[in-house]
Amino acid sequence: MAIKCYEKNGQKLYQVYVNARSKVDPKLRVQKTVSDLKSLSLARREENRIHQELGKKLLELEGRCDTWESVIYRWAEEAKSGFLGTYNPATIMDHVASLRNWTRSWLKIPASELGKAHGRDLVKKMTNEEKSISFIKKVKNTVNVIYNFGIEEGLIKGVHQSPVYGIKLHQKQEKVPDILSLEEIKKLLHEAKRQKHPWYPIWATALLTGMRNGELYALEWDDLDFENQIVRVSKSFNKRTNEIKSTKAGYWRNVPMSPELNNLFVSLKSSNKGKFVLPRFRDWQRGDQSKILKMFLVGVGLPKIKFHALRACFATQLLAKGTPPAIVMKICGWRDLKTMEFYIRVAGVDEKGATDCLNILPSEAEVMENVVSLFQH
Questions:
Q1: Predicted confidence band at 224 (pLDDT cuts at 50, 70, 90)?
Q2: Closest C-alpha among 250, 188, 242, 183 to residue 218
Q3: What is the pLDDT of residue 354?
């Protein structure tokens, strides 16, 4: 470090030069010069500032002080390259966006300085915003995956565990999903058709097929087999990447075309000359499908539900009507048995009729017989 005094245009000025070398790796050296400082005191303050700046830079070069933001960035680059396994580009985007949102206050902090206190604050923040246990677990898992990547790659040194590792979650009471009853479904479709709402064919198709939002958006006439009365679901629209891709489960499936659905498609075919079955509104492309549905439901006096809940309405109605769970699972494209079991509970299929054997209440005739017997005595 050195402070040099010199004259320039008749004015006395100072120059600061700072040179720093790594104690871990002597080959690593950083330096910086700042000129034209107008006083010695200012030069000394600048000297201290540069010394701290270069010290931090050396730590980064040594791999001991990568910020959380830089670790996330490095993970994303490696994930895109395929060296971390098979990651869907949309999944990588989701993980990065989630951490940039929920761990925003961590981004500029050296990752090695993140501790359990940071982890607990993150969980508290999500809990206070009433996020579900499954959502909190998902974010926790993402933090663990990327932080462990940083440790394995030598980006984070001196630490062996993620800041959220081992943090316990308080199990919340499971919330019954917001879905419509059969009568409410009929009212929704009746009012939508009566008012000639432009989204009527979209809502009707969702309720008659159980297809996901992106699958409905990507549905083409070539996917309909009118001869065999089948809807082949093989692709889905991804709003984030603005592209047509495979379904969420990664495989195609068939949905039986009911007579009502057949009539709806025939009606749409007569007025639709494009390749897509359903009207493609700008609001739909922007991802406002739930907003449109909720506005209409409120207007006709029905409970507000998300667009995705139309799929749940379809599944629970099939189950309630006696369709075997395995068939519903196949039609809806669920691979996870837990998801299927959840909807079976919502539909009350397992419990239906189980209490019919409890014939314990006295009949009116038995009660009256006892009353008469009392008065006769």
A1: very high
A2: 242
A3: 45
User: 19: number of CA atoms within 13 Å, CB side?
Assistant: 5
Residue 142: name the closest of 98, 109, 88 by CA.
Answer: 98
Residue 336 phi, psi dihedral angles, 5° rounding = -85, 120
Of 272 and 198, the structure prediction assigns the larger pLDDT to: 198
Distances (CA, A) of 325 to 233, 252, 328, 349: 19, 19, 5, 9
Q: How far apart are CA 162 and CA 3, in angstroms?
A: 43
Residues facing residue 256 across a β-bridge:
230
Lookup result for tokens 């990752």: 111
Question: In terms of domains, do 105 and 32 share one?
Answer: no
Half-sphere CA count of 3, side-chain side, radius 13 A: 17
pLDDT of 274: 87
Domain range for residue 28?
A: 2-61
Q: Which residues is 30 bridged to in the sheet?
A: 20
Which residue in 158, 253, 270, 262 sits closest to 204, CA to CA?
A: 262
**E-only strand ranges, the chain:** 2-8, 11-21, 29-37, 224-225, 230-233, 236-238, 243-245, 253-256
Strand order in the sheet with 224-225: 224-225, 230-233, 253-256
Q: Is 278 helix (H, G, I), strand (E, B) or coil?
A: coil
Answer yes or no: do 135 and 257 share one domain: no
Last residue of a domain, one of 61, 91, 107: 61
